[in-house]
Each structure stands twice: as C-alpha cells, then as structure tokens.
Amino acid sequence: MSWREVEPAPVVLVSGPEDYLAQRAKQRLRTLVRAQQPDVELTLMDASTYTPGELVMTASPSLFGEAKLIEVSSLAQMNDDFLADALAYLRSPAEDAILVLHHAGGVRGKKLLDALKASGAPVVDCQALKKDSDKLDFVRREFKDARRSIDAGAAQALVAAVGSSLPDLAAACSQLAADTTGSITEETVDKYYGGRVEATGFKVADAAVSGRGSLALAALRHALATGVDPVPIVAVLALKLRQIAKVKGASVTAKDLGMAPWQFDQARKEARYWDSESLARCIRLLAETDAQVKGAAKDPEYAVEHAVTVIAASAGR
C-alpha cells in the first residue's frame, strides 16, 4: 500500500529503499496515533545494535498506561538477537503498542519479512521513484492532498526542474502550494524554479531540437552567464536526441521504451524535424562535445554553443 493510505496497526512493515517515503509513512502514523492518544510514548530503536529483550521491555505496559509507538530502523542490518525477538513478538504483539519496522531492502531478515507478510501486517511500499511518470503522479497527489490544482505542463516542468531529488520535489510542491493562489501554471513553476540547472538544460534542448536556434542560444548564454556548468546542459541535449532516435520510425509505445507518456509524445513531435542522417551526426557531435566540456577543450562554453548551433540548424522546420 502507499504511505498515504497506511493506518495504525499492531505491527506495520515499511519496506523499500526510498528513505523519504519511509519517513512520510512514519510521520503519518505518528500523526494518526497522536490524534487518538496524545500521550503516546515514542521509542526509536536500531535493529543493527539491538540488545536481547529490548523489544519486549519497551512494549510492556507502563505504570501510567500510556500507549507505545515503537519505530525500528536498520532492519536490513538487523542482528540475530533482534531477529529472534521480533519473530517471538509477532506471535503475541503487545495490546497497547504499535510496532513500525523499516526494512530498506536486501536479503537480510527474509525470515522475518516472510513472517510479517504471512501475519497480514500492513506493508507500506517505499520503492524509489525512478520514472518521470511516477514522479508526476507524486506531484499530482501532493497538490491534490493540499486541495490545489496544477496544470499538466506545470507538473512536467516541476519534475524537470527538481525531480532528481524526491525531498526537493516534495518541498517544491509544498512551497508552491503555500506561496501561491489559484491553479499552478508553467509560468508559476518557471518563476520559482526556472533557474535550476535541470530546467535550464531542458529549455536549451527543447529549443535546439525543434530548430529554434535564436531561442536556444539566448537560453544557453543566459545560463552560462549565471554560472551554470556546460556539462549538464550537454547531458540533457544528448538525452533529448536519444529519445528522438528511439521513437523515430519505430512502432513502439512509451511503456516499451521506459518513457513517460508526455516524454514519448514530445519526442514523437520533435522527431518530425529530423532525418536519420542528421540525427546520427548530431549524436556523434554531442559525444565529442561531452569530452570537450569535461576538459578536452580550452573553451568549454564555445564547445557547447557550437553544438547547440549545429543541432538547431540540423532540425528541419
């Protein structure tokens, strides 16, 4: 289940390597438990440094009858003492305690994971969001939960600008929801995050591969003047041309290529400007440019400007 849906239960497993989502799941559980039992006692425990009997002792009823919320981290590095005590605890969980276990991945503790799943304990899936389509879903849900709307283009722009880091993406959603009114548009995103390296690279690349040379060079020169490194700009240019090469003349779907639907549609539109020979030539040029901006040329800024000029001129509008 999603971290957005988890409810308190005697034992909850938070599973997956995305630490940010795991923290959101734990925070949701804390909030829900405290709403019902404000005096709940929170205990943090590390399964890798666990001492025998610690879990049972912590979960035992207190003199004042407070509920217990026990969060255990580092299950992927659990020691044998924790494994034995956790398996025993599962057979008879404490009545007034909620045990939240976080396993980031790997084979360590498989016996416990199997026992947790067999017991019917809720399992919160916290896998890394690697695809842009997953990040777009995350953005839409963040704004939906905040009772705000965001345009499709604005969501794409936000992922392009800050999507490399999920905590940054969540913080951006929170900032936009708090600082603005009305529907979030592309213009709003550009105002707040248009200067990020990722966003700048896509501005340059989008203009260049569609043959808008003047716009591409203007965006590039502005980026370089404000201190943006040429390396990520070349990387985005290469990404765009590879995407065009993948979709050009092929009977494939976005899913086949591991692309978000909007990326696939955009690449198909941009592919209309390109023939195979020009595309291959520019991909080779970018390989040379990549080496140049990483130290092989005395003037890396000239190298990337030359590449942008050639790419824009090669796109047949």
Oligomer: single chain
Mean pLDDT: 89
| CATH hierarchy class name of the largest domain | Mainly Alpha
| Order of strands across the main sheet | 2-3-4-1-5
Query: Would you report the number of β strands?
Result: 5
- Strand and helix order: EHEHEHEHEHHHHHHHHHHH
Figure out the total of helices.
Answer: 15
What is the topology?
Blueprint: E1 11-15, H1 19-36, E2 41-46, H2 54-59, E3 68-73, H3 80-91, E4 97-103, H4 110-119, E5 123-125, H5 132-145, H6 152-162, H7 166-179, H8 186-193, H9 197-209, H10 213-225, H11 230-247, H12 254-257, H13 261-271, H14 276-296, H15 300-314
Parallel strand pairs: 1-4, 1-5, 2-3, 3-4
Helix pairs in contact: 3-4, 5-6, 5-7, 6-8, 6-9, 9-10, 9-11, 9-15, 10-15, 11-13, 11-14, 11-15, 14-15
Task: Offer a concise description of the structure.
With 317 residues, the protein is α/β, with parallel strands linked by helices.
Model description:
Helix 6 (152-162) crosses helix 9 (197-209) and helix 11 (230-247) packs across helix 13. This protein has 3 domains: 11-125, P-loop containing nucleotide triphosphate hydrolases (Rossmann fold), CATH 3.40.50.300; 132-193, Helicase, Ruva Protein, domain 3 (Orthogonal Bundle), CATH 1.10.8; 197-314, Up-down Bundle (Zinc Finger, Delta Prime, domain 3), CATH 1.20.272. Helix 2 (54-59) links the parallel strand 2 and strand 3 (68-73). The chain contains 15 helices and 5 strands. It has a 5-stranded parallel beta sheet, with helices on both faces. By secondary structure, the protein is an alpha/beta fold. It is elongated, with a radius of gyration of 25 Å. The mean pLDDT is 89. The longest helix has 21 residues, at 276-296.
